[in-house]
Prior knowledge:
This protein is an alpha/beta fold. The protein has a single domain (4-230), classed as Aldolase class I (TIM Barrel). The protein has helices spanning 44-49, 79-84, 103-111, 128-131, 168-179, 202-213, 227-230; strands at 4-14, 24-30, 55-57, 63-65, 74-77, 89-93, 115-120, 135-138, 154-159, 188-193, 221-223. It is globular, with a radius of gyration of 17 Å.
Amino acid sequence: MALIYPIAEYFESIQGEGPYTGALMLFIRLAGCNVGRYQDPQFESELKLFPRHSVCQSALGAKFLCDTDYHFAERLDLEPLIQRTNARHVCLTGGEPFLHDLLPIVKRVVDLGKAPHIETSGTLPIPDDVFRQAFIVCSPKIGFLPANRGKIHHYKFVLSREDLAEEPSQVWQRLLSVMGEDEALWTTVSLQPVNGVHSVDKDLAIRIMNVLHAAPDWVEPSLSLQIHKVLGLR
């Protein structure tokens, strides 16, 4: 069966973020994004240096340079990729993967005995039939849809220096206002520093540890480091 989609890139690597850090995955980056912007005076120098990267804005309001290139590269049949990978996990990412109908891919991944993962900004509806079969990771961006609460297995908040200028307790108030306190009772949460395109901001990661200490009792947060960048992997 053909699974033809617009693709930015695909590769096998370890998952460097969130609860599956270290797991071998086939990553399929679908083309397109509904959040990124290519003009912003605040990031003029960065956009000149990385013209294929855009400026993103988190649900907390902070802007940062996106570390991925989600431009269209080719239309590709994903069936052979999924069939031949030795990885037990297949991650659909972007950009924003929910710009596309993901159910046919998710069903095929499950049929082949593999685990589907989806990384989303939460700015487009998450279909029930996809949520029931895939592990959904949401890094909430501006325009996050509260209707997606209850369909997210893991929240990954990307935090900037601007976000961390507040007291840790205030940071948590803002995080919980996005995900909802009820959501924090059953989902897992990770906090990740805004890193460079190819580098990790270690100082920012250390500052995030102060926020971890201030987490409410019913939340079990962790630090997400983008280990693939630490190791120099894709």
